[in-house]
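Sequence only, no structure available. Ideas?
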Amino acid sequence: MNFNFIKQEIIEEFKMSKKLILFLIITISVLTGWFLGFIKIPYFDSKYSFWIGVLAGISFLLFLLIIYWLLFKFTFEIIPKQILPSLFEGSGESKILRFFLLPTIVLLLSISYYYYSGNKSKNHQLNYIKQELDDFKNTTALEDQRNKINLLYNLIKELDSIADNNKNNYLNEQKINRILSLSSTLKTYRIWNMEFKEYQELSSEKALLLLALVRTNLDTTVFKKIKENISFSGADLRNADLHGLDLSGIDLKQANLEYANMEGVNLSYSNLQGANLKGANLNNSNLVEANFISSKMNWSKINESNLTKTKLDSADLSNSSIQNSNLFKGSMINSNLFNSTLQGSNLNLCLLMNANIRNADLSNTILNKADFNLLNLENVDFTNAVINKFWVEQLINYKNIGINSMLQNFEITIDTKSIKDSTLYRLNVIKK
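Reply:
I predicted one. Tokens follow.
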């Protein structure tokens, strides 16, 4: 028997299956790593670790069967049984199957179940302890916040009485500094918002503090100092009555002012970035250079208000009413003005870039030198809007779309009310 020939055939066969063997080795290594990870070697925490381990174990056994087939069945076809140990012949194969594979299956499943049961029990205990600890912390924190609010109320009353009695400024300063110190420790808590399907960081204590401050007869200078040094960010002021108040320069970032009455309020130079003002009443308000970036102002009323240089970038103003307001040099980049009404408002030098103005009402607005950039002008009402003679040309240069559709519905006529040397035009509906 030519054993060299048989040996050469074996070598050639293994060369042909080299890639397959390499793939099997890598895969088995990865699966082994998964299994070791499942039994916490090294330790890691995973919600689905048990099922990952089961799948890894099953996959591992399947590859063992493949290797068994490759090493024994494949080898028997090219190597005579006479040159193989008796262990690999006949009943030897069934012995290996019984005494190697079956115990391996039992062992892996046993280990998986053992660790699954142990980890499940430990995780349940840990979660229970963590929940109790969180509840205790929240209860303690809320109690601490209530105590601080009571102290703040007393300080505000004392400060109010000091101002009424015209006592010395030193005592006044002490009370103010005490208020500032206590207010800085007020915290926000996560509250689930059903409408937006998200958590909000809100504080009812900050809201109570602000309402307490505005209802006293504090000196204007004193209140200004408090506003400059206290952040009311995250204050929960839903449905609050703040009409006519001077809140200029206040920090109400991320605050919830949903459906609040803020008619006639002064919010100039204030920070309401990310605040929720859905349905809020801001009629006749002063919003000069206020920051409303990324705020929710849908369904709000901002009629006859001053929004000069106001930042409304990325704000949601859909279905809002901003009639007869001054938006001179305002900024509305990426804002949502869908179905909003800006009738009669001044948008001179206002920047609208990449904003959604679909179905918006811009009738009787002043659009002289308004910067319209990357807008869709279809279905926008421009009836009687005031423009300059270069406005259409600027619309084309700034890559707006829907211009032809707009010009089919409106014609440009000279504004008879414009003064000499400053001729303006109006967009009138074409009668069909």
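Residues 4 and 181 are 92 Å apart (CA to CA).
Hope that gets you unstuck.
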